[in-house]
Automatic annotation (TrEMBL):
Keywords: Membrane, Sugar transport, Symport, Transmembrane, Transmembrane helix, Transport
Name of the protein this chain belongs to: Sucrose transporter1
Associated pathway: Glycan biosynthesis; sucrose metabolism
PANTHER family associated with the record: SUCROSE TRANSPORT PROTEIN SUT1, SUGAR TRANSPORTER
Compartment list: Membrane
Annotated family: Belongs to the glycoside-pentoside-hexuronide (GPH) cation symporter transporter (TC 2.A.2.4) family.
Gene3D superfamilies associated with the record: MFS general substrate transporter like domains
Transmembrane region(s): 39-58, 101-118, 148-167, 179-199, 219-246, 258-278, 290-311
Molecular function GO labels: symporter activity
Origin species: Zea mays (Maize)
Keyword hit for Transmembrane helix: yes
Any one cellular-component term (Gene Ontology): membrane
């Protein structure tokens, strides 16, 4: 997944798609439009390749109904409940410790989604002082900030990939609860840092066109370091909650799929909350992304504190890392 992110974010960080595919530019489609179409065109090609490989090389076992399924003492076939209602019913039979995992997962994703949704917009507005609806200079500044933000996400994915190899050793040494809680505190500090960096950038900005287009080199470097730093807690987020869930389900004796489905609900709900509420919340403070990032820092702090007291203890020796993403 990290490799895919690296390729995807690198496509967004370049401004040369219109040169490589000049036919994408038309009277109604400028350079920025052509760059966007070029990146999407490559994405379509990769999707077709993946689909073709799956169709031709994936070995699928045909479904045989109730054949070879375990049976009860009276001879009836023993089946697992399925469908949306099964997920809702799963809340009644969750393993011990699972409710606290769902709570901390929800708080953790509430702290992540503002940055995931608005990180490049933050670079374009607060760091490069651009405006997609402003003057030509402001539009250029915003576009440049978004491209630098995409490069920051590329660095984030590189760090994420390397950090993934360290998660299991760390969890075996200090336990998954400590690793998870530490990642929340890291996000808390990082989200608070976005406000400080934004105020620093605003202090150095005097409204000149040159300043708008060429952001301070030191501020740009700090932002890229921040993006890279967040790759570590993001790697933990993509792995540890799912591994803890699988371990709790295994302790109960099964139901990993159902527990994972319930866990995904605690991820989707925060995403909906942030998607609907972040915009109006920022508007209350005169637009910008800092209010949402400030709330994210608060959620990360709460998630870390709650995790210290409520997350279940998982055996260090039996821990196995499980990765998941794409939410």
């Amino acid at each position: 997944m990290a490799l895919g992110n690296i390729l995807g974010y690198s496509s967004g960080s370049t401004n040369n798609w219109h040169k490589w595919f000049p036919f994408l530019m038309t009277n109604a489609c400028c350079e920025a439009c052509a760059n966007l179409k070029g990146a999407f065109l490559v994405a379509v090609v990769f999707l077709v390749m993946c689909l073709t490989i799956t169709l031709f090389f994936a070995k699928e076992v045909p479904y045989r109904g109730n054949q070879n399924l375990p049976t009860k003492a009276n001879g009836e076939v023993e089946t697992e409940p399925s469908g949306p209602l099964a997920v809702l019913k799963g809340f009644k039979n969750l393993p011990t410790g699972m409710p606290s995992v769902l709570l901390v997962t929800g708080l953790t994703w509430l702290s992540w989604f503002p940055f995931i949704l608005y990180d490049t917009d933050w670079m374009g507005r607060e760091i490069y002082h651009g405006d997609p609806k402003g003057s030509n200079a402001q539009i250029s500044a915003f576009d440049e900030g978004v491209r630098v933000g995409s490069f920051g996400l590329l660095l984030n994915s590189i760090v994420l990939g390397f950090s993934s190899f360290l998660i299991e050793p760390m969890c075996r040494k200090v336990g998954p609860r400590v690793v998870w809680v530490t990642s929340n505190f890291m996000v808390c500090v990082a989200m608070a840092a976005t406000a400080l960096i934004s105020f620093w950038s605003l202090k150095d900005y005097h409204g000149y066109v040159q300043d708008a287009i060429t952001a301070s080199t030191s501020i740009k470097a700090v932002c890229l370091v921040l993006f890279a730093f967040l790759g570590v807690p993001l790697a933990i987020l993509y792995s540890v909650p799912f591994a803890v869930t699988a371990q709790l389900a295994a302790t109960k004796g099964g139901g990993q799929g159902l527990c994972t489905g319930v866990l995904n609900i605690s991820i989707v709900i925060p995403q909906v909350i942030i998607a609907l509420g972040a915009g109006p919340w920022d508007a209350l403070f005169g637009k910008g992304n800092i209010p949402a990032f400030g709330v994210a820092s608060g959620f990360a702090l709460i998630g870390g504190v709650v995790g210290v007291f409520l997350l279940p203890k998982i055996s260090k020796r039996q821990f196995r890392a499980v990765s998941a993403g794409g939410h």
